[in-house]
Amino acid sequence: MISKLQYISQGDTPEAHLENIEKACASSAEWVQLRLKNGAPKTLLETAKKARAITTSFNTKLIINDHYKIAKAVQADGVHLGKTDACPLLVRDYLGHAFIIGGTANTLQDCNVLLEKQVDYIGLGPYQFTKTKQNLSPVLGTSGYKKLLEDLQTKTPIIAIGGITVKDVSKILKTGVYGIAISGAITTDVTNIAKFQKILN
């Protein structure tokens, strides 16, 4: 089951990521993505192991960003692949069907490629400008989501992402997206989890 609210971890250090993941889990987050960029492989693996221990104790799903071999090594629930990461078909072959595989998209073409490669969900964005991601793709806004979803006509869950705040959620949901992925708004205030969940449910 793909969660309608996905928390993507933030932090200046691996320890900060873990602290933020623990806070999110303690505030009833059902789905957490460990998004640790530019770390040494050993650091990534150790952090992922600790994140798995935290999420297991709270019965929260853990998705690993980019590193599908680490996702398998720590028995995470899945992996989220960026546009320049490994092919979802190759990753499916490696992980098997018990793992969730998601992919990042910005355009109709991106979405169609991911659908052909049978991902379990698509993270589509950015909704608006965000500092979380370097080399940001063109901003979609609600009109961009509406048009893409009309063109796609897919049952695969589409997750809106990119600078989303509590006040944005209702209008984003009207476009037909399945759910939202949040980083900053939860990292800065975990009480927002309950607010997001209330609107989504």
Number of strands: 8
- Spatial shape: globular
Note the main sheet.
8 strands, parallel, barrel
Number of structurally distinct domains: 1
CATH class: Alpha Beta
Mean pLDDT: 96
Q: Output the CATH topology.
A: TIM Barrel
Topology order in helix (H) and strand (E) letters = EHEHEHEHEHEHEHEHH
Number of contiguous helices: 9
Structural class: alpha/beta
Strand content: 15-25%
Strand order of the largest sheet: 1-2-3-4-5-6-7-8
**Which residue ranges are poorly predicted, with pLDDT under 50 across at least 5 consecutive positions?**
none
CATH architecture label name:
Alpha-Beta Barrel
Helix content: 40-55%
Radius of gyration: 16 Å
The named CATH superfamily = Aldolase class I
CA-to-CA gap between the ends?
15 Å
In short:
The protein has 201 residues and is an alpha/beta fold. It is built from 9 helices and 8 strands.
Word description of this protein:
The chain is of the alpha/beta class and 201 residues long. The protein has one domain: TIM Barrel, CATH 3.20.20.70. Helices cover 42% and strands 17% of the residues. The chain contains nine helices and eight strands. The protein has helices at 14-26, 41-58, 68-73, 88-95, 108-116, 141-152, 169-173, 184-187, 192-200; strands at 5-8, 31-34, 61-65, 78-81, 100-105, 121-124, 158-161, 179-182. The chain has an eight-stranded parallel beta barrel with strand order 1-2-3-4-5-6-7-8, surrounded by five helices. Strand 4 (78-81), helix 4 and strand 5 (100-105) form a beta-alpha-beta unit. Helix 1 runs parallel beside helix 2. The longest helix is centred in the first third of the chain and has 18 residues, at 41-58. The radius of gyration is 16 Å and the shape is globular. The mean pLDDT is 96.
